[in-house]
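Re: the multi-chain job from yesterday

Posting the exact lines I submitted so nobody has to dig through the queue logs.
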Amino acid sequence: MSGSLARSLREYRNHRAGVVGLAALLLFVALAVGAPLFVTARDLSAVYAPGAPRQPPSSHFLLGTDAYGRSMLAVTLWGARISLAVGLLATMMSVGIGSLTGIVAGHFRGWVSTLLMRVTDWFLVLPTLVLAAALASVMHRGIVTVIIAIGLTAWPGTARLVRAQTLTLEARPYVERAKALGAGDWHVMRRHVLPNLTPLILAQTTLSVSAAILMEATLAFLGLSDPTKVSWGTTLQLAQQVGAVSAGDWWILLPPGLAIVAVALAFTLCGRALEATLNPRLEGKG
Amino acid sequence: MEGTGHIAEGRPTSRLPALAIALLLAAFLLAPAPFGKPAAAAPKKVLTVATNGSVDSLSPFLAQRVLPTEVHRLVYDFLTNYDPKDDHAVPAMATSWSPSPDKLTWTYAIRSGMKWSDGVPVTARDIAWTYNLMMTNKDAATANGNFVANFKSVTAPDDSTLVVVLGKPQATMLALDIPVAPQHVWESHVSDIGTFSNDATFPIVGDGPFILSAYRKDQYIQLDANPGYWRGRPKFDQLIFKHYANQDAEVQALKKGEVDFAGDLTPAQFNSLKGAANITLNNGDGKRFYALAINPGATTTNGKPFGDGNPALKDPLVRQAIMEAIDKPALVNKTLGGFGVVGQGYIPPIFSTYTWSPPATETVGSDPAKASQLLDQAGYRKGPDGRRTTPDGKPFTLRLYGETQRAEDAQNATFVKEWLDAIGINVSASIVDQATVGDNETAGNYDLAFDSWLVNPDPDFVLSIQTCGARPATAGGSFPGDNFVCDSTYDQLYAAQISEYDAAARAGLIKRMEAQLFTDRYVNVLYYPNTLEAYRNDVIGSMQMQPQPNGIYDGQDGYWSWWSATPGAAASSSSHVGAWAVVAGVAVVAVVLAAVVLLVVRRRSTAQERE
Amino acid sequence: MSAAQLAELRHTFALDKPVVVQFGDYLLRLAHGDLGVSFQYRTPVLRLILEHLGATVYLVGTATLLAAALGLWLGARTAWRRGGAADRANTAIALTLWSVPTFWLGLILIVVFAVGVGPIPGLFPTGGISAPGVTGIFPVVADRLAHLVLPCLTLVAVLYAQYLLIMRSSLLDEMGEDYLTTARAKGLRDTEVLRRHAVPNALLPTVTLVFLQLGTVVSGAVLVEAVFSWPGLGSLFYQALTVPDLPLLQGLFLFFSASVIVMNLLAELLCPLLDPRVRTG
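And the result, structure tokens for all chains:
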């Protein structure tokens, strides 16, 4: 297992886009984690905002100021924390649900599998945003709700992939042998199937995060998040509400938007590189 | 599957684009389009107003939202109107009026010679019929029933006299904002008055300065000038309210000349239009107050408490401390960008007759030190972590509610949270949709909430919502009030002002009510936002403002602005679509069609080769 | 609208009853083809949906068709010239556009192409589906198209990437097949092989996926319509969200889901037309 992982890592290095994506990702995560080092509570305070509202970039405020007079640089840096956290937590939830459904549906046959796959198909075709927005609008407003709304709607893709892979794995001789030797369902799933699914799940996670980050921004824009928390989505929503778009305050619109694009792209590049590493047949596709 | 089977036939594929195009063409035709409208003979002078309001109904009996009520002011006449200079009541359908000595009977002389747009004369009987319908039919009372709630009878002894008999004296008899509907048209709709939305056949029969001639939901409302209007025909031939989903789009449409007027601008938008070509800006006084409501502990009309409002808020010292911690001028400067007036009395200063300000000694706010001292005095001690605890030792936390749709709530919540945090009160702020706020308020489950009301020239309604009687009859039931306030002094003054027919004396009573509300500190006005508007001075030459000199154009308590607007040099019926856009649009279609044709032709040819 | 009026309205529409009771009522009425009444517009939900349907089909249909055409064409090209500069550039652009939040792209396009920035004049209308008061067939058509350009462009930009990527990978799969080698060995030119053999076969999984992705299209439409004031179902959904107007939300949700499912069924019916393998097999 560890040997194949090392081989995968070596192969991953051959994907230039993937390496760039990974580097960008590490940079973003480092900035988000290290944000408290550069940004103080006072920088994010509305009352003690250091500048006048909506000032264009200057030597003092490199990216200008937002509607409260806070530095856009500080706000964008800090926004990475919630956007990334929501993206990662929501993805963990959706990939968790998806993997569990996939493994169970792939391992068991008969009505369990049929039922699970019908439910999965049902969720797969539903318009994700409509479902997530409807969910978020009827639940208590806040960051947790956004995570749950994304997590509950984004899992069916993972479930299908994991089920397909589980079916392949269970057909392998050593799994068949283990079953013949009387290994229980739990044992087979945990000892034989799950470890071999890890790379696939990892790739799927990476790909899902970008969708989750986009969804977080979208839900915030629709007013379904908590506007008193600083994230990229709420920053854009605030910008729109105070009329920054028609005022042409590009320094408020561009940083959070470009940050979303950059992070989503970085996750996608990593995910595709991982996928290609794991599935050599797709070699040369990304 | 054989090898040759891999080679697909081309022809079936070629049907797909053709099918799709046929479907799209069908959709293009089905999508609401102004096809078939006769071309105008002479160039029309059109005034286009941007709006992001929605229409709940076009029925004058049902419409409650701002946009349709404004339209009804333009297409139906009212008993009285408000003077454009200072908002005092002026004649409209009624030319004169007089109350009886016992204050219970009002007799109005109704103007003669008015006509509905279908030629039928307008008489006192139309007014009596409209009012009677609202008094007897619950559905018809949906929008304006509160005006006739105290009416005992309404009769029209002849075509030019209207007599209203009241249950109790009512000082608002010259402020009956009820659109009068034509009896001969609406009689047939009495049976479905609760659902008939008055948008079936156009033009809609009316008697206002404009006639409602076309409407498309979420697109536009089109009004034509009424040539026979008794006060004079509007100078523009057509008035269009064009719908935009957001304010930014409105501002951009104004800059480009797609619309001629945009109201309700944010400070950022207003500033961005400074110096723009052909744009005149108006920074008018606002008709709205914006307040912080403090839950006094919800009770029913018989005094039964309910809800879970924090009991600490019953302590006047705590309420005062909260208001001392809040810096109202900072909110005006930051949230409103300076476009507003710091809150004092309950009635906004635009209504100068009723405006009240506290004596200088009583002004509170921007004093965190005093706030802390008040809290200490009240027994809310600061712990080692800087957080205060209630006298019985529990953490002191307050919930603050605001609405997502009101842009200023999120900003103000951030400020208030920080200020209260600084004096040791923990605040959890929730900015949620209107319905959730409404649910929590109705249930009495809140501590602090942002609260904003539009005030009419006659302030009776906003005063009534703070009386004991405006509380719900049952716990958690719907109620006509605002914040469960119940103060006997205030209620006595309220009863006195409604039966006071002397305007100056009534204003005096109302100011005393404002003073009482201010001292109670349950409804604390933070500011009055200015109304920020902009219009194209190349299309609109001039318009009447209401009131003058610092009033507004859009959302007036009359029809003065649109009725009086004179066309400017560039006013015409041009569709505002730039030639570039037309060229680009045609080019796009040409490219798409070419691509599709190419695709189809290539498919066909390959298919033939194969066969 | 005050809290009290809202509470009154919600009472009128029985929205203050327990959710389970409401849901039961809803199912019962649904069985009779009644989607309920929007408490924001006081209009039957079904009527509202039908009124707004045309605008959405017009926008989403045009955008999907363009995005699919563009995506499939570019996808085929990039797959054929795999690894080349054009492939890398196209894939990079597609992936970047795919990572762009739809509403943000719409806002930026409005700022740049509707308002105008620097030397760029404001070319297109900022929103809406048509200008009121335009008469005559040609001006009406031109006006319609001018209003369509920006919202359609936004949707195409965020949609075409996935079609490109799907087409690219299906074609790459197809190109590994033996029959292509055979076709080449027969002496057919490369472009002929691509056009006549590989593309038609790669189209099947692609078209199926295009239909499967319709849910994404609907989501994109909600945002594009909200940003561009397009009077379709997406705007209606956005309006319903802000209140929230639950009967309308439920009705739209049901409608969106049903239409996506119907589209998927349609895809299954279309498959045999596209691929004789399915027809015979």
